[in-house]
Design brief:
alpha/beta; Rossmann fold; eight-stranded mixed beta sheet; binds NADP nicotinamide-adenine-dinucleotide phosphate
Length: 207
């Protein structure tokens, strides 16, 4: 699968490594431009390339957005329309400033700014270190750590869940962008906790 990545920081770079390892074609981008990613893509090998943000968005069948949430307004709307967009972003007011989600989930706010995009909230609940180190492709699903997914588009959610399995984690569905999106936000029982699927399902049943 062709995967575009916007953001080459802790989550963008870690995910690029995981996706390449799982056999996908990756185009990664950041705010400084492709030149700044030369060494990374050389290290990742022929399945990786560096592009502008717009070109990486156009390249991907799936596009991971891993930038600070405050940058939401600079995301390339036209190129992301129709794409499966993984929203890995979390809202931290001290970093992102005051944003008004009008009582909704941050990922609904992101989706509203990306008309036509098939947004799935995922890869946002785990710190980048275990994300990079703890995946166990091939292990039984019950023995892996969970990555949560939320979304309104069932097929898009299924595609992202498949990618999660390929990189060695177990996807657990938290619901729609509105409900599940909120359940995956900072400060919740699901956020930044390593859980096996049974623990995750139990935690989810209490929410
Ligand atoms: N760190 C974690 O463990 C973790 C875990 C889950 C979710 N998250 C969330 O994932 C997102 C990314 O976090 P991170 O820790 O990976 O951040 P990070 O290490 O600070 O990296 C941010 C990346 O976004 C790029 N960027 C910033 N503004 C941009 C713009 N307008 N257009 C294109 N690229 C832009 C930066 O480009 P340059 O490299 O050119 O500066 C950088 O590559 C955040 O929303 C965070 O809350 C983080």
């Amino acid at each position: 699968m062709k995967i575009g990545i916007i953001g080459s920081g802790m989550i963008g770079e870690t995910s690029a490594r995981l996706f390449v390892k799982a056999g996908h074609e990756v185009a990664i981008s950041n705010s400084r431009g492709p030149e700044s990613l030369k060494d990374l893509v050389r290290e990742l090998g022929p399945k990786a390339r560096a592009m502008s943000v717009e070109d990486a968005a156009a390249f991907g069948e799936v596009v991971l957005v891993a930038v600070p949430l405050k940058a939401y307004d600079s995301l390339p709307r036209a190129q992301l329309s129709g794409k499966i967009v993984i929203d890995a972003m979390n809202y931290y007011p001290q970093r992102d400033g005051q944003l008004d989600f009008k009582g909704g989930a941050s990922t609904e706010f992101v989706a509203q700014h990306l008309p036509g995009a098939r947004v799935v909230k995922a890869l946002n609940t785990m710190y980048f270190k275990p994300l990079g180190e703890e995946g166990k492709p091939g292990a039984p699903l019950e023995d892996r750590w969970v990555l949560f997914v939320a979304g309104d588009d069932a097929a898009a959610k299924q595609t992202v869940s498949g990618l999660i399995e390929q990189i060695g984690f177990t996807p657990v569905d938290t619901g729609t962008l509105a409900t599940g999106g909120k359940r995956q936000q900072p400060g919740t029982a699901l956020y930044n906790r390593l859980m096996r699927p049974s623990e995750a399902r139990e935690a989810l049943s209490t929410l």
